[in-house]
Amino acid sequence: MSSDLSHVLRPVDEARGLPNAHYIDDAVFAEERDAVLFGTWSGLAVASDVPENGDAKPISFVGLPLLLLRDKDGEVRVFQNTCRHRGMILVEEPRKIEGAIRCPYHSWCYSTKGKLVATPHVGGPGMNTHEKMDRDTLGLIEIRSYIWRDVVFINVSGDADPFEVVHADLIKRWAEFDAPMYHGGPDSAFQLDVRTNYKLAVENYCESYHLPWVHPGLNSYSRLEDHYNIVEQGKYSGQGTLVYRQLKGKDGQTFPDFAGLGEFWDEGAEYITVYPNVLLGAQRDHAFAIILEPKSVSETLEHVHLYYAAPRIDEDMLQDNATLWKGVFEEDIFVVEGMQKGRYGPGFDGGRFSPAMDGPTHCFHAWVAARLIEHRQTLAAE
Q1: Is residue 68 within 8 Å of 56, Cβ to Cβ?
Q2: How far from chain centre, in Å, is Cα 116?
Q3: Within 10 A of 302 (CB to CB), how many other CB atoms are there?
Q4: Residues 312/53, Cβ–Cβ less than 8 Å
Q5: What is the CA radius of gyration of the chain?
Q6: d(CA 205, CA 73)
Q7: Of 286, 297, 293, which is closest to residue 196 (Cα–Cα)?
Q8: CA–CA dist 167, 232 (Å, integer)
């Protein structure tokens, strides 16, 4: 299962990429689940998935049964979707929690804040308490979570540094966008089921090198030479453009801008990966978040959400913008699926990085490798 990763940590002009096993081997995928996806701040969903108090959405995150819930006071929480009695799944389908979360097996009930509030017949018929059953210690297991740019990030292991510490640089970089964002609604959310390891989707998103051949329409006005690399070692990476072009409606109207932006954002835009699995786009008039859900070592479900600076946007423009972005993201599918297929070639050694063009991708590889090495050292010391 273990693989040598020392070559990944070398400078970009000397490094090779992650070995094939990190894209095709189930055992290595399980290792990455613990070291990378569970051990850091991973994207789970968006808060807009549960817009009203009491809204609950069950989510399986790399096999872990979770429940995304907006409690009665409006706070978004993440719990293990598991009854503390016999381990029954509590919520099977998205729904509104009107009173308590009731287990369908023995009817144990939990508040929307996770507290165990009812244990029918636990002490025998008609006896709803028992001296050996301490409700205060049997509440739902809550998963550490943090919301930024509407994305619900979770730290399953519970031992990562606070999100606002880990990503302080990125939060500062986009501080101008610290303003309300409004989800565009059903027409502004879609999913793409892609037969690839989630890391390949990250790697492709990080760089602009592929634009002339994969996105000729986009490249016609936002050319390769108009882009720049974004590399923050051990934190995040991506790309930016200096010639962002706004979508225009049939009468020439545009989306309203986010307030208080500097001059750079008049034509600038940035596209950054928050490691390990969240792809974010920031532009003057709308934003997006893509949460990569690793379904298996070779399958990824991309959850795409579009946001705007105002709560009400022209419906036709909303649909046009969603269609535009969906088309762009669909153009990438054959590439990431092709790289997945290519990883079954035993002679491939992880590949080389262009020092000029692949810095953002190398940055991601090095971060993954460092997380895995640290994880292996921790296990070895136990």
Answers
A1: yes
A2: 30
A3: 23
A4: no
A5: 22
A6: 37
A7: 297
A8: 11
The rounded distance, in Å, linking the Cα atoms of 83 and 106 is 10
Q: Which class for 129: exposed (0-12), middle (13-18), buried (19 or more C-beta within 10 A)?
A: exposed
Count of other CB atoms within 10 angstroms of residue 114: 19
CA dist 86 → 75, 90, 101, 262 (Å): 27, 11, 15, 55
- What tens digit of pLDDT does each residue of 272-299 get? 999 999 999 999 999 999 999 999 999 9
Where are the extended beta strands (E) located within 187-248? 189-194, 227-232, 236-241
Amino acid of residue 318? L
User: Which DSSP letter does residue 36 get?
Assistant: I
Q: Using an 8 Å Cβ cutoff, are 73 and 111 in contact? A: no
Q: Do strands 151-155 and 182-183 pair parallel, antiparallel, or not at all (unpaired)?
A: unpaired
- Report d(CA 124, CA 121) in Å as an integer: 5
Q: Residue for token digits 């309203």?
A: 256
Query: Can the peptide bond before residue 276 be classed as cis, meaning omega within 30 degrees of 0?
Result: yes
Question: Of 117, 125, 131, which Cα lies nearest the Cα of 83?
Answer: 117
Distance, in Å, from the CA atom of 247 to the CA atom of 289, rounded to the nearest integer, reads 18
pLDDT tens sequence across 306-356 = 999 999 899 999 999 999 999 999 999 999 999 999 999 999 999 999 999
Residues ≥6 apart with Cβ < 8 Å to 125: none
Could you give the C-alpha distances from 255 to 125, 184, 246, 318, 324, in angstroms and in order? 62, 12, 8, 9, 14
- Nearest to 206, CA basis, from 320, 335, 294: 335
Is the distance from CB of 109 to CB of 103 less than 8 angstroms?
A: yes
Q: Percent of the chain at pLDDT above 90?
A: 90
324, HSE (Cβ side, Cα atoms, 13 Å): 16
Encoded tokens for 226: 């108009």
Q: The pTM is what?
A: 0.96
